[in-house]
Amino acid sequence: MMSMGGEMKGSAIGILGAACLAVGFGAGFVLRPVISPVAASPAVAAGVAQPSEDEATAAVRRHRLFTGTSLANATLKLGDCSPGGVGPGVTCMTQIVLDPTKPNASPQNRPIGFARVNGQWEVAVW
User: Fold this and answer.
1) What domain range is 81 assigned to?
2) Residue 38: what pLDDT?
């Protein structure tokens, strides 16, 4: 008899968890528009600010890699941005050339996180 009561309790918790999950998914669908203009990135569609390509390039040029490498000459093409993810702000797909002055410099496709700090866009997640 005792083990049956334990199973019932676990089952009730599982049902409650599933119900909360369903409500969470429902709220997510309501908060994010299902249909958005093709030109708008997911961040814009969700009403989240994102940097312009110039602001993103300036932020990358100010950023120093953990190795101490300067990115002062970096060039960047900004792709779609989406809210948050790993850190604050937005995460944007980019095509970046770390130093176009070097021979054989080639573009890298990588996500970079940006956040506004004191009114200025900065690299939040590299």
Assistant:
1) 39-125
2) 42
